[in-house]
Design goal:
four-stranded antiparallel β-sheet; Multidrug efflux transporter AcrB transmembrane fold; Alpha-Beta Plaits; about 5% strand; single chain; alpha+beta
Amino acid sequence: MIALPARQIVRWRAWVIGAWAILALLFVPKAAHVQRVLAVRGMNFERSESARATQLIRDAFPNPIADYVAIVVHGPVRYSNPRFVTVLDSISAALERQTYISQVVSVRSIGESTFATPDRRTTFLIAALSPASYSDVSRTVVPELRETVQSTLHKLPRADGFDVKVTGNPALDYDVRTISAEDTRRGEERALPLTLLVLVLAFGALVAATLPIIVGILAITIALGIVAVAAQFQSMSVFVLNITTMVGLGVGIDYSLLIVTRFREELNRGLSPGDAAIRTIQTAGSAIVTSGLTVVVGFAALILTPLTETRSVGLGGLIVVGVAVLLATTFLPGLLAFLGRDIDRPKWLARMLAWIHTPQGWERWARSLGHHPWRAILGGGLVAALLTFPLTQIKIGLPVRNWFPPETESGQALEALREMGASGVIQPLRMVVQLPAGESVLSGRRLGGLKALSDSVAKDPRVREVRGVATLRPGLSTLQLAMFYDDPDSVRDRYPEFFNAYLSRDQRTTLMDVIAVDSVSLTGMMDLARQVRSTIARSTRLRGAEIVVGGFAASSLDLQENLLSRFPGIVAMILGVTAIMLLIAFRSVLVPLKAVVLNCVSVSAAFGITVLVFQHGYGSSLFGLQGPTEAIFVVVPVLVFATVFGLSMDYEVFLLTRVKEVFDKTGRNDHATMEGLSATASTITFAALIMIIVFGNFAFTRVLAVQFIGFGLAMAVLLDATLIRMVLVPAIMHIAGRWNWWPGVRAPRRDTDVEEAT
C-alpha cells in the first residue's frame, strides 16, 4: 500500500484545515458561474471530413449559411393574412438589423411550400449567423435573439395569438447548457438530504454524518473552480458539470465514510484522537489513495481522446477525484483529530440505531460463502451472464427520440418543424465540392458531373431533395443547365441570396444540401451520410475535385467511428494500468487479475441493463422518456466504462485491503476472507447506497446523454457492491486459498491446508 505522511498531517492539522478553507473561498466565485464558460458543442481535435466541410463553407462563400437558427411562427390565421404578413416582416426586419445575422430566409422571400404547414398557420424563418458570431453563438447570441423576437412581437398591435419559438443547433445548445446547470443544482438538492439520511443511519450520529457531506461539497466546489480556470485555456464541455458533480459527491462522501468509520474503530480500541487519526491515514487513507488512483486512470485515458466532450470529462473527473482523495486523507483526518469523541453526538441517536451495525448477519453470510464457494460462483456467474446478454444487441448511434430535451423552447420548435416535415431543412447533409484552382463549377463538363451526383444521391428513398446549383431549376437536362448558366453573373443577380450561400465568388466551390424525408431518424441520417460518401467514392465525373460531406449527422458519424476505433485502446490502457497498480499495492498476481476480470463483468452487466432499459425501452417511462431510444450514443460507453471501472473498483479495494490486513496478522486465508467481508460489509453497503442515490438522481435529468451516464454508473455500482463484492470475490478467494497472495506468500503446503480446514 502507498505510505502517507500521517504523523505530519495530524501534527500540522490546523494549517492543513486552514489551507483547504482558503482554497474553497478562492474557488467558490468561479464555481458558481462555471456553466458560463462551458461549451455544448464540442470539437474534434483531429481533422475529420465533416470538420473540413464546415471550414470550406465558412471560407469559400461570401455569405455562408454555416450556422443558423430557425424561428418557428404559429398564428391564429394563415401566413398570407395581413396580420401574419406583418408579424413575419417585422421579425425579419428586426433580425436583419442585428450585427450577428447575415441574412434571413422565409416563405415570404422564397415562397416554398416546405416553409409552411398544410393549414398555412405555421411557418418558419431561417436566420443565418454571421461568421464573427460563430465562437460566441450559444452564449450571447441566442438569448439576445430571443429577446429581439419577443420584444418585436410585443410592439405589434395585433400580435395576440401568435407563438414564436427559436430552434436550430445554436438554440438547442443554449437550452442544453441551461437545463444542465438547472438539473445539476436540482440533483444536488435531491441527493444531499437522502445522502445525509443514509449517513445518519450508517454512523448513528449527526456530527459524523455531516462530515462526509462537507467533504463532498468542498470537493465539487474546488474542482469546478479549477475547471472554470482550465476553461479559460481550452474548450470544456458542459457535460463536465454533471460528471464532476456526480463523481465529486459520490467519491467525496464514500471516501469520507471509510475514513470516519475507521477513525471510530480506532477510538473504540482505546487510541487517543490524534493517534486514531494517524492510524486511520495509515490504513484507510492508503486504501483510498490506491482506490482513487484506479479511478484516475480511467479519467486519464479519456484525456487522450480527440473530442472536447470526452477530454473535458476526463480532465474534470481527474481533478475532482484528486481533490476528493486529498480532502479525505488530509483535511478530514485533521478535523477528526480535533473533534475526537464529539463525532458521536448526539449519543441517544447512536443507541437508537445500534441494531443496524450488528455484524451477525454479515458473519453468517461470510461463513455460508466459505462453506459453499462453488455454488456462489455458479449462481453469481449465471446472474451476471443473464444481465450481460442484452449487451450483444447494442446499437451505437444517435437516439431516435429525446436526444434534444422536448420541454425546452428549442425542443418544442424542433417538434413543430417535424410536424410540418421540415426538420430535414434544419439538419441537412452538406456536400461541399471544391474544384482545382482555375476551374468553374458552372462549366459544361463539371455541371454535368454535379447533376449526375445530385441525381444519384436523390435516388435514395430516404432523400427528399438535393439543393444546389444543379437543382436550382428542377427537371432541366444537362444541356439545358449549361444554357441556363451561360451567363453566370446574370443568374447570380436574379438569385443573390441563393448563390451567396451555395456558390463561391470564384465559382470554384459549391455546396449541395441533402435534405432527408422527415421519417428518417438521427441514426438513419448517419446511415445516409455513410451512403452519400459511398456514392461520392463511386462517382467518376468529378475526378480531381475534393468532395466532403458535413452537417450534424456526418459529424456524429465521424465522431462515432473515431471513438469506436480508439475504444479498444482505451479499454486496454485502463485494464493494464489498473492491474499493474493493484499488483504493486497488494504484491499479488491473482488479486489484480481477479479484480480486473470481475470489474469487467460488473461493467458489462451494467451496459446490458442500460441497453434493456434505454435502447429497448423496458421501464424507460420511469425516466421520462417517450419510448425506446433504439440506439446508444457512442460517447456513453466510452465515458461510462472509463468512469465506472475505477469507481466500481473502490469496494473491492476496500474489501481486499481489510482482508490483506487480517491475513498479514493471522496467515489464515479463509479466516481473513470471512472477517474482511463481515468487517467491511456494513460500511461498503452504505457507501454503495450513497453512490447509487447520487448517480441515480442524474438518471432522471432532462439531458439524455446525462441520463445514460447516471443510470450506467448507478447500475455498475449496485452490481459491484452486491453481486461482485458480496458473492463472487469472497467465493473465489476461498477457493484460491493462499494463492491469492502469491508471490508475496508461498503456495500452501499440505499441513497448512489441514490447519486451515480445521
